């Protein structure tokens, strides 16, 4: 009888462990799927509609972006400045997403669109920080090369943003490009104005 009671209690504990672990595993699994699509979007091979519809994924991606952003802290930029710039960027991207999706009467896709915009920033920032560090520590010839690398990264970032806006808002490529370029210039203007 003791054996049966012990076995029965062990089965119940194992069942509860599965129930208690599966949501966390599910959230982490969804985030890994999101990460895969963020990378594919950066390669212009995916779209926001393929992302899981999960607020937890957006939260994990936002946390990742803030943590990666903290790598940008140096003598010229403090933690507060970097966090304020990230918050400004995310606020602007959320506003553009809301306005564009409301205009197209597709607000139900807001979470996926914002997740895509946030996720591509995570991937591009994570990819570019080592590149900048490599060229910043090189010789004087590296300065010219750094300018070309910066221009290539900027074009890559704008192309990916444009693709996400095009697919999320279901608009033509030239209009999505105009939105991306306008966003970039407005963001840079605000950053230079507030953080000279």
Write the layout of secondary structure elements.
Blueprint lengths: L1 H41 L12 H15 L9 H25 L6 H27 L4 H29 L3 H22 L2
3D architecture notes:
Mean pLDDT is 85; it is low at 1-6 and 11-21. This protein is mainly alpha-helical and 196 residues long. 22% of the residues are buried. It has helices at 2-42, 55-69, 79-103, 110-136, 141-169, 173-194. The longest helix has 41 residues, at 2-42. It has one domain (2-194).
Provide a brief overview of the structure.
This protein has 196 residues and is an all-alpha fold. The chain has one domain.
Q: Which structural class is indicated by helix and strand composition?
A: mainly alpha
Work out the helix count.
6
Q: Which residues form runs of ≥5 with pLDDT under 50?
A: 1-6, 11-21
**What's the Cα radius of gyration?**
21 Å
Quote the average pLDDT: 85
Portion of residues in beta strands equals under 5%
Terminal residue distance: 77 Å
Encode the helix/strand succession as letters.
HHHHHH
Number of strands: 0
> How many separate domains make up the residues?
1
């Amino acid at each position: 009888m003791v054996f049966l009671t012990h076995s029965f209690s062990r089965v119940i504990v194992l069942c509860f462990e599965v129930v208690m672990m599966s949501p966390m595993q599910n959230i982490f699994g969804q985030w890994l799927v999101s990460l895969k699509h963020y990378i594919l979007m950066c390669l212009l091979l995916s779209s926001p509609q393929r992302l899981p519809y999960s607020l937890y994924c957006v939260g994990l991606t936002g946390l990742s972006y803030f943590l990666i952003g903290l790598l940008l802290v140096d003598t010229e930029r403090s933690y507060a400045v970097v966090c304020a710039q990230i918050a400004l960027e995310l606020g602007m991207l959320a506003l553009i997403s809301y306005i564009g999706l409301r205009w197209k009467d597709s607000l139900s896709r807001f979470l996926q669109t914002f997740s895509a915009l946030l996720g591509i920033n995570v991937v591009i920032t994570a990819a570019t920080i080592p590149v900048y560090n490599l060229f910043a520590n090189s010789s004087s010839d590296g300065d010219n090369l750094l300018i070309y690398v910066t221009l290539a990264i900027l074009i890559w970032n704008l192309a990916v943003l444009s693709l996400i806006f095009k697919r999320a808002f279901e608009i033509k490529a030239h209009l999505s490009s105009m939105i991306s370029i306008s966003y970039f210039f407005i963001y840079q203007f605000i950053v230079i104005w507030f953080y000279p």
